[in-house]
Amino acid sequence: MRTIIVDDERLAREELKALLSEYPDIELIGEYKNTVEAKEAIENDAPDLVFMDIQMPGETGLELLEKIKNPPRTIFVTAYDEYAIKAFELKAYDYLMKPIDPERLSEVYKRLHEENQTPASVVNNDILRAGERVLIKDGDKVWFIKVDDIRYFESEGNYVKVHFDKFRPLILRSLNSLEERMDEKLFFRANRKFIINLQHVVNIENWFNGGLQIELSCGTKIEISRRQTIRFKDQFSL
Question: Would strands 94-97 and 133-138 be described as parallel, antiparallel, or unpaired?
């Protein structure tokens, strides 16, 4: 799980890093001291998990979570218990009190680990290539479709919406984990919210801030972030 820490206190960050080092599948990819830095990291690096303080100079952690669309799983780490109700109203994943109880952190980790081990709705772990079929389940509904027919994947909190034909099933999986299974010749990560099927791209145009906007065969328009635009051009330019 690609993870970032957001806390204005260096010692608090060091303590949490030490605790998280006990869990080998938690990969710390960054630490930040305010919400401005954290917002940029979330948008650019698409972490799976955020440990975040609430009271920080400037914007609070709650305010940041409230303004981000489809945020990653966020665990608040704070010395104040009075914000818990608001945190869960914002769909925070959990709420830890400082100083962190290692047993309480272990409970949170076990829940995260169990969720990540839940059998994927796309049922195997091989690379998804053109022409292959995949099984997708959403509740009682089941589809067995060609990978080529998937126009794009869209992050919806802890779920991913799969767009194909007239259907939009939700699967319990992160966009990052799906990206690892994508054939890079067929699918491309446009930004932190979308993975697109390159076979369905019908138009590309320059967009704001150095990005690109692509149009898919269904008429949907999706922006490729500035960072991913660089990768896109490197990968596909002559």
Answer: unpaired
0.85 cut: is pTM over it? Answer: no
Q: What is the pLDDT of residues 185-228, one digit of tens each?
A: 899 999 999 999 999 999 999 988 889 999 999 999 999 999 89
> What local confidence, expressed as pLDDT, does residue 134 receive?
85
Report the distance separating Cα 158 and Cα 173, nearest Å: 7
Q: Quick one: CATH architecture of 2-117?
A: 3-Layer(aba) Sandwich (3.40)
The arrangement of secondary structure in 133-236, i.e. its CATH architecture, is Beta Barrel (2.40)
Contact (CB, 8 A) for 13 and 5: yes
Show the tokens assigned to 92: 């925070």
